[in-house]
């Protein structure tokens, strides 16, 4: 494997031009922004590099499924692995116990074996004539992964994060269930973000804020829509002038329609997750790899700091899959091959590099 | 003037191609509406560039709730307009209101922040030399965040807008505001946005294409220019409709189907 010289895609070539990141876990992006990783390699790729510092990421939850936790866990773990301070707020009784469920990064050796394995898996699924093309494709994504190894880890969802990562004093946990208003959380955020103020010069360190289910109905503040809005507004205002990223997940269906729109407007990057029904025969016929999917991820908005150009993605809906029941992967939806008798195929098939593909004709 | 060539569809729809007045928007109220799927902040950037670059006597008072100065500076620099220089020349006044939060609680107190803001705007305009006063544009980005800053007291925000509207008749300056239309479309009586639309002389609406996002067409603009009716003596409002594609250094405007 290592003897073959990897063919660089245009993406990785650009990377070599950009000055190498000064600090672990930070990467220079366009328009003077700096990226931190979302903890999911595929999501970084989709968003064009990761979450830009100073941006507010919002995830709309599926009220019936905990898929937002997958995003949140990987985001938090990635920060801890890079030794970035973390502020975590949740409506649970004991927020700190959530740290025990964070996934652990895989060593690079495991990573390699995993990739060649999955490559073989995929090889079996496609017709043998196309194997040579697939091989090429995989090497591309493979070399990309190698470049970003430091920036974004693969996380093994079954292995808990080692304690030494979060036993340090860099993690702050806040319970938001008992407080009657958001003043406590606001103060925590303010003191947390004060460490990363941009006026102090160098962007040597980045902070991460993860807030889970901000408008959960068990919190007393969930009835005070304007209070929550002004909290988000002030958080965003502070973020803009600091080297930190905040991820807020919220059950959009619990907010009133106009409030929910306001929240969505506040977000720089807006994602939504949803579960897929277990035994949906129709869907299973329509999409390939339906059995492996655990949910769907929608990208509604991509952060555009310092620019007016909107980011137009080739596809906005991705399937969330667990590779080998361990690794989180996002893939484009691919239409399943249709047998000739059933007529024309009309398409939802997008393209996404490095995903297992059904080739349609 | 020789810059007639550089005017695009949006300028024409706004009536900027007529040479009768130095700054045709003066005394007018412009409302820009957008939604989650397609943002219209590029219209504000375009108007900033137009007013600062074309005509040397224009002044902009920018009230920012959404982004810090560095954001606008970078965006406008790519459009060919240096905001730092303009700020030093006292032609661009930037009010950073990102952290503005009116105190809530007692009735009557929560308007204090907005009153102070209005006083600040008025003072800025009134100390300008006499010949510049009528070339002032007050821009607010954006109204929905102002509502949040006022703890949802929409009436105070409307009052504020009415006061700003009074400025347009007092000094002959113009008022440009951005708001998100889809916030209000779900409510039963969208009084707030209706009032704003009533106030506006020119309404610019950005929407995504019905067929979804595309790489070549980012959305469509609908411009309703109420005031052209007076100039032409007809009672009909003029509606312009065209597509746009946003780029770093410009925005392309074109009629539906005229590209490709």
Automatic annotation (TrEMBL), chain A:
**Region Disordered: start-end pairs:** 92-121, 339-361
Low complexity: compositionally biased ranges: 340-361
- SUPFAM superfamilies listed in its UniProt record: P-loop containing nucleoside triphosphate hydrolases
Q: Kindly report the protein's main subcellular placement as a broad class.
A: cytoplasm
Answer whether the UniProt record assigns the keyword Nucleus to this protein: yes
The biological processes this protein is annotated with in GO are: tRNA wobble uridine modification
Q: Could you tell me which pathway this protein works in?
A: tRNA modification; 5-methoxycarbonylmethyl-2-thiouridine-tRNA biosynthesis
Give the matching CDD domains.
Elp4
Q: Where in the cell is it found?
A: Cytoplasm; Nucleus
For this protein, the record's Gene3D superfamilies field holds: P-loop containing nucleotide triphosphate hydrolases (3.40.50.300)
Which keywords does this chain's UniProt record carry?
Cytoplasm, Nucleus, tRNA processing
Q: Does the keyword tRNA processing apply?
A: yes
Instruction: Quote the biased-composition stretches of kind Basic and acidic residues, using this chain's numbering.
Output: 108-121
The record's Gene Ontology cellular component field reads:
cytoplasm; elongator holoenzyme complex; transcription elongation factor complex
Instruction: Describe the family membership recorded for this protein in Swiss-Prot or TrEMBL.
Output: Belongs to the ELP4 family.
* Name the record gives this protein: Elongator complex protein 4
Q: Which organism is it from?
A: Dipteronia dyeriana
Automatic annotation (TrEMBL), chain B:
Q: Which GO terms describe its biological process?
A: tRNA wobble uridine modification
The protein's matches in InterPro entries, at most eight in alphabetical order, are given as: ELP6, P-loop_NTPase
Describe which pathway this protein belongs to, using the record's wording: tRNA modification; 5-methoxycarbonylmethyl-2-thiouridine-tRNA biosynthesis
Give the CC-aspect GO terms: elongator holoenzyme complex
Per the record, the similarity remark reads: Belongs to the ELP6 family.
Protein name as it appears in the record: Elongator complex protein 6
Q: Which organism is it from?
A: Dipteronia dyeriana
């Amino acid at each position: 494997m290592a003897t073959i010289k990897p063919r660089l895609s245009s993406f990785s070539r650009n990377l070599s031009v950009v000055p190498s990141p000064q600090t672990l876990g930070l990467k220079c992006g366009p328009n003077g922004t700096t990226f931190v990783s979302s903890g999911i390699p595929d999501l970084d790729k989709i968003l064009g590099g990761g979450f830009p510092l100073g941006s507010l990421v919002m995830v709309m939850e599926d009220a019936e499924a905990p898929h937002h936790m997958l995003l949140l866990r990987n985001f938090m773990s990635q920060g801890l692995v890079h030794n970035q301070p973390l502020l975590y707020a949740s409506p649970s009784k004991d927020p700190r116990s959530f740290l025990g469920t964070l996934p652990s990064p895989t060593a690079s050796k495991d990573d390699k074996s995993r990739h060649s394995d999955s490559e073989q898996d995929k090889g079996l699924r496609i017709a043998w004539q196309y194997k040579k093309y697939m091989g090429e494709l995989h090497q591309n994504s493979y070399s990309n992964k190698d470049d970003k190894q430091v920036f974004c880890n693969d996380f093994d969802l079954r292995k808990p994060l080692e304690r030494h990562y979060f036993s340090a004093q860099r993690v702050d946990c806040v319970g938001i269930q008992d407080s009657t208003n958001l003043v406590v959380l606001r103060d925590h955020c303010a003191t947390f973000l004060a460490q990363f103020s941009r006026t102090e010069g160098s962007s040597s360190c980045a902070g991460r804020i993860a807030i889970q289910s901000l408008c959960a109905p068990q919190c007393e503040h969930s009835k005070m829509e304007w209070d929550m809005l002004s909290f988000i507004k002030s958080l965003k205002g502070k973020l803009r002038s600091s080297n930190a990223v905040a991820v807020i997940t919220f059950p959009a269906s619990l907010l009133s329609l106009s409030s929910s729109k306001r929240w969505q407007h506040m977000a720089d990057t807006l994602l939504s997750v949803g579960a897929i029904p277990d035994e949906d025969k129709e869907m299973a016929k329509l999409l390939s790899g339906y059995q492996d999917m655990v949910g769907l991820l929608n990208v509604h908005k991509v952060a555009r700091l310092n620019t007016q150009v909107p980011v137009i993605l080739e596809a906005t809906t991705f399937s969330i899959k667990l590779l080998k029941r361990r690794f989180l992967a996002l893939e484009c939806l691919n239409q399943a091959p249709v047998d000739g008798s059933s007529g024309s195929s009309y398409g939802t098939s997008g393209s996404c590099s490095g995903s297992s593909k059904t080739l349609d004709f | 003037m020789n810059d007639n060539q550089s005017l695009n569809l949006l300028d024409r729809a706004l009536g900027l191609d007529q040479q009768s007045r130095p700054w045709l928007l003066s005394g007018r109220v412009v409302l820009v509406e957008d939604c989650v799927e397609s943002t219209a902040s590029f219209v504000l950037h375009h108007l900033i560039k137009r007013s600062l670059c074309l005509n040397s006597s224009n002044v902009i008072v920018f009230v920012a709730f959404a982004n810090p100065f560095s954001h606008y500076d970078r965006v406008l620099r790519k459009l060919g307009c240096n905001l730092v220089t303009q700020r030093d020349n006292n032609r661009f006044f930037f009010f950073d209101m990102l952290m503005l939060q009116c105190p809530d609680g007692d009735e009557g107190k929560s308007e204090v922040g907005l009153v102070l803001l209005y006083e600040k705007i008025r003072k800025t305009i009134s100390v300008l030399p006499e010949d510049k006063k009528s070339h002032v544009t007050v821009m607010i980005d954006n109204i929905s965040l102002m509502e949040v800053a006022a703890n949802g007291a929409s009436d105070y925000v409307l009052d504020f807008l009415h006061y700003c509207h009074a400025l347009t008749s007092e000094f002959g300056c113009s008022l440009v505001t951005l708001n998100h239309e889809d916030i209000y479309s779900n409510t039963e009586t969208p009084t707030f946005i209706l009032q704003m639309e009533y106030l506006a002389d020119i309404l610019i609406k950005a929407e995504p294409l019905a067929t979804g996002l595309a790489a070549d067409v980012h959305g469509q603009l609908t411009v309703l220019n109420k005031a052209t009716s007076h100039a032409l003596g007809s009672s009909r409002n003029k509606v312009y409709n065209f597509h746009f594609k946003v780029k770093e250094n410009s925005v392309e405007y074109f009629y539906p189907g005229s590209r490709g």
